[in-house]
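Reviewers of the previous submission asked for a worked example of the structure-prediction workflow described in the proposal, so we include one complete record here. The input consisted solely of the amino acid sequence. No template or homolog information was supplied to the procedure at any stage.
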Amino acid sequence: MKFKISHLVKTYPITFFAVIALFTASAVTAAKGVLLPLAIGEAALSVVLAVSAILKMHNEFRIIKNAVISLNASLSDKDMLKYFPLPAVICKTNGKILWFNDLFKAAVIRNRQPREDNISVFIGGKALSELAAKKTFSATYDGRDYTVISETLDSSGESCTVFYFVDDTDLKSIVREYRMSKPAVALVAVDSIDEFYRVYKESEYAEITSAVERLTENWFSEFSGVFRKLGTGRFIAIVPESELEKMISKKFNVLENVRSYTYNGATVGITLSAGVGRGDNLSDAEGAARQALDMALGRGGDQVAVKDNDKYTFFGGVSKGVEKRTKVRTRVVASAMSELIRNASNVVIMGHKFSDLDSVGAAYGMYKAALALGKDAKIVVNRKTTLAQPLIDYIGKSDDDCFVSPLTGERLTVKKTLLIVVDTHKADFVDSKNVYEKAQNVIVIDHHRKTVDYINNAVIFYHEPHASSTCEMVTELLQYISKHPVADSVCATALMSGIMLDTKEFVLRAGVRTFEAAAYLRSRGADTVTVKSFFANSMESRKLRGMVVMNAEMYRACAISVTDIESDDIRVVCAQAADELLSVSGVDASFVIFKTDDIINISARSMGKVNVQLIMEALGGGGHQTMAAVQLKDITESQIKDMLKTAIDNYYSNL
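From that input alone, the workflow returned the following structure tokens.
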């Protein structure tokens, strides 16, 4: 490779002019005849700089030469890299461009000098280390889209990378246009519209529904698509993906428009739910929209669920659901359950991990129902992790053999066994995953807001997110599941304990049906004094709870406490501490972070102003509006605290 002065000037311009300056200074100094040693030194330094630049340039030329030779080894003589039919660039491992062919200069940089001599300019600012494992990736430069193919070459101990640029702008434009034209279907429903018919006069009801329909229609008319009314409070919209993205960018603010609607100067409290489905065709999109609407309603309504394959995205869900006063569905479900119980060989009942009073109380209620229908039944409880040991001991005094271990429950589960899962609808959160996986017939009874990973093979999925507790739901079922009274005083007390736990002794989420259920249980002999004893704590637990409360700090009207205390009752202590923090002035929600084994837990509580379920769901957990939790592995307390603050920020930004 011949050396040219022009190469030196182009590659190292600063060094070149520095050498010229030093030579000039040396000549001037020597001409004056003074300071001869200085002149010699200047001349020597200029020679060193010149030689250094030449050697470095020669080394880089050698790298290019070796790379080209290496490439040419796999190409025929006429397919030299210079004439390769694709734009090509050779760069060093640090990204510095060594050489590019004429086609790259003409097609990519369009005969202009590159703004920088680093390949990152042409590959979206990514460093070569980020692309080490990728042979093909997409990049955009100067308004054009490219698929870039990389190849790493090693020759004579030198390493470099060759990039080939395939301009597929037109193809990608067609792909984007196709994606943006794919259909999306939205099914919209006014939440609990029949309940408003009971409150308002017929003329007022008609005026309210017309106004809500007008608000909804006006919002959807802002977008290009089809919007039609299917019935009272039910609509369908068909839009292309491009319009759906506009709706998403507005965060479906039609929810807020309807939620804030006032009639005669008062907020009505009416809300919308919608399910949006994507698909390759209208049939697939409509099916996905139905599933998404079920998910939105199962999470309490007042929200939009967007389904894309198996992934859900949620918008809204910040308000309380409207309690349904009709018990028609309860009677229908009770009849279907009694039939399944009668046809089963035996019944196994199971709650969630770390079972509480609501879980065990509801399980015992269904246990008594199975016995009343003449079937053998058992309750699966992990006594090592349960948080309801006082209730289990209380029930054990009259029914000492109703509780079995997960191992025994697995042995009892046969082909015709009916498994009843209470107080959870998540397959990964049941007390025994093996029992669930072995059962072929499953019933789910739960009140928590629906999550994506719900049990999807249930014969009956009885889900009421508006109910205060699962014990409330079971209490209503027991009144219809058998002709004869099912609940005795022990069962009534167990069910009452679950209701009192989840309502914070009838303070939170207690509706009309909650008090009706409590009144029925009281008539069946529920002992509230005994229930109160289930909530008693030791002096040590009270001290630990005080420590957790003292560690709390405020963040955006939320109290966050991180504790490292060790106790066998750590879960109960932290849950009660979260409840106690709500009594502090200015606290709308509380979060207690604690560790159990290798798991970091968050216990979240609110008085209803903040939907802690949405915040916990953002971290992978769940629950309902006033009570939620999450469990995470391979993370530190400080990391999860930062994640929690981010989730809180996102929650408030979406209001």
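The CA atoms of residues 413 and 439 lie 6 Å apart. We consider this example representative of the routine output the project will generate in years two and three.
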